[in-house]
Amino acid sequence: MKNQIHFFIALFFTVLLCSCGKSFKYAAKDNGFYSGMAVTVGDIFNPETIKILQNDCSIIVYENSMKWANLRPNKNFWNWNDIDSLVEFAEKNNMRVKWHTLFWHQQNSPFVSSSWTREQAIQMMNEHIETIMSRYKGKIAEYDVVNEMFNEDGSMRQNIWYKTIGADYIELALKKAHQVDPDAKLLLNEFNNEEKGHPKADAMYNLVKNLKERGIPIDGVGMQLHLDARISYSEDAIRQNIQRYEDLGIAVSFSEVDVRIPIENSKAYESAQENIYLMLYKIASEMPNVTSFITWGISDKHSWVPYTFPGTGNALLYDEDFKPKPVYNEILKELKK
Ligand code: XIL
């Protein structure tokens, strides 16, 4: 009897210890989503960042290396090395790899041309999909097939693919991608598309609903969520938006999260930032179709925020010395509840 009591006491403390020591990525998994970060090539070779990635990430994506300009700077040269390294790193560390992005209006190679005919553009698009997705079949789990296809008013963005092919470039890309790797998850990614009622969010929803109803392969929608701690966001409108995707059977990825604060007077906005992060992690934990939560970088040492939104920064969960911020610990505490 006494032995049994000792055994149960020991078991109780072991379980308690395990759950307290649970790393971020496992805590996220327990809440039903993959946790991840966007990285640069250097990050997967630097012991300091590797440690963070191993602790926090079950999904990983390149910030830039998969974009046309980096991957295929000219027509006849494909720069696979960096991507192969990421795939190898992810395999070793049991992470999913996400591709960002197949088609976008920015960071294209100089030979990508809006004077292509429809036929030429479709051929280039197919070649791009075929070359990448057959090479990484079974190794890259999900793809941002098209990125940022809308203007703020909800009209279609006149990117090179729209100009050369027309509005159906999106469904042509999705169909081709599905044909090449039927197991890959296919997403459309946007910014300012998180709150129901915003013209872009509604345009995205209508597009996805239409695609789904016509049997075009589409698995998910990415919400970039590059947010600003000075702005207040409607939790209700975000939840309603995600819920209508759930009703369609569509997954949602929080795909590029950061929450910037003004550098001057930074302290004053820290709690607003914390509230936004906590709201997003709570939504991701509670809503079953939110499948991943990816921050757009590891630490404030390297982030696109300061040079894109001058005067702001401190947007990520780790500081410039790779130390987790108080907000990180708050999130982890919530995830472990
Ligand atoms: C950004 C990168 O972070 C920068 O390093 C690069 O100079 C420009 O692109 N939305 C996207 C991402 O989909 O690809 C962008 O990444 C950030 C906004």
UniProtKB/TrEMBL annotation:
Its EC number is 3.2.1.8. SMART domains: Glyco_10. It is an enzyme of class 3 (hydrolase). Residues 18-334 form the GH10 domain. Pfam families: Glyco_hydro_10. It comes from the Bacteria. Keywords: Carbohydrate metabolism, Glycosidase, Hydrolase, Polysaccharide degradation, Signal, Xylan degradation. GO terms for molecular function: endo-1,4-beta-xylanase activity. It catalyses: Endohydrolysis of (1->4)-beta-D-xylosidic linkages in xylans. The keyword Signal applies. PROSITE patterns: GH10_2, PROKAR_LIPOPROTEIN. One of its GO terms (biological process) is xylan catabolic process. The keyword Signal applies. PANTHER family: BETA-XYLANASE (PTHR31490:SF88), GLYCOSYL HYDROLASE (PTHR31490). Belongs to the glycosyl hydrolase 10 (cellulase F) family. This is Beta-xylanase.
